[in-house]
Amino acid sequence: MIKSKKKSGIKIDLTGPDGNAFFLLGTADHLAQQLGLDKKVIREEMMAGNYDHLVNTFDKHFGNFVTLYK
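and the corresponding structure tokens:
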């Protein structure tokens, strides 16, 4: 995806303290609530696998609003 230089949106550095699973789960809960999504379903899907699965699921649901950096 080509992105503009627009400075809006949420950015999360997965190599820093915000990249841990607990932070991502909390952020997913907060965003799901704001977007009117079922946070319980998203949380269960995120927790159904390993860390990579959690990150990919987060990106699937919130990739339009959050940029993840490795």
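(Above: one complete record from the training split.) The beta strands are 10-13, 66-69.
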